[in-house]
Amino acid sequence: IEYQQHYFPGSRQELLQAVKKSVKAKRYQHILGVEQAALALAAANQVDLEQASVAALVHDYTKNRSDDEFKQAIKQYKLDPDLLNWGNFIWHGVVGAEIIKTELKITDTAILNAVRRHTVGAKTMTTLDKVIYVADFIEPGRDFPDVAMARAIAKSDLDQAVAFETKHTLNYLLNASQTIYPGAMDLYNQLVVKN
Ligand code: GDP
Ligand code: FE
Ligand code: FE
Ligand code: FE
What is the mean pLDDT of residues 136-146? Predict the structure, then answer.
């Protein structure tokens, strides 16, 4: 895919180089897989391919940054101080979006929101948000017992794939006695009301 609409001030190759420099090798491979999955989902759900590509390539751009950098950024960008009570899993999306804006000069709100929402989703999600949320879960490098099921659902119905992933992730977190970010419950409640 050739970039033409300037969601990023440069070519796809230049964006790839910037992303590669920002993350570990394994993370970079995951990111390329997410782009591949996101392009397929975008095509099937009438989402702009360039927007999907840029969002996918940057979604984990800050995943390997230090806790200190995130804590400093929360203050610098005057983000909700409650974020300080959480960790990398939420920071690399919500705080990551601000760092992406600054370092990569990406200003498209739809792309930045998709990054913010890619880990726990949101009560209301755009189709681009859903594409990135689901692509992150089903990209070719993912390997967990239900991934084949998730891929099959995603192929036929994006909203059902969002619901499947949300329940799957919450189930996993409860089972592992992990803390649940309140925003994650917002999406779950929304899905239960709808279905
Ligand atoms: P990744 O960045 O590609 O690994 O994927 P995600 O951004 O979707 O998720 C990052 C990590 O956050 C994963 O290990 C998830 O299991 C975890 N995670 C997602 N939601 C929550 C939550 O509510 N609480 C906690 N503790 N972890 C979560
Ligand atoms: Fe992530
Ligand atoms: Fe995810
Ligand atoms: Fe990811």
Answer: 97
Q: Give the C-alpha distances (Å, rounded to integers) separating 25 from 22, 32, 80, 145, 174.
A: 10, 11, 31, 24, 30
DSSP 41-84: HHHHTT--HHHHHHHHHHTTTTTTS-HHHHHHHHHHTT--GGGG
* Residue from 82, 89, 138, 178 whose mutation best tests the ligand 1 pocket (most atoms within 8 A of CB): 89
4-29 pLDDT, tens digit per residue, is 988 999 999 999 999 999 999 999 99
Atom of ligand 1 nearest to the CA of 183: 23
Please tell me the number of the ligand nearest to residue 150's CA.
3
Return the CATH superfamily for domain 12-194: Hypothetical protein af1432 (1.10.3210.10)
pLDDT digits (tens, 9 = 90+) for 73-86: 999 999 999 999 99
Mutate to test the pocket of ligand 1, among 119, 130, 174, 185 (most ligand atoms within 8 A of CB): 119
pLDDT cut 90: percent of the chain above it:
96
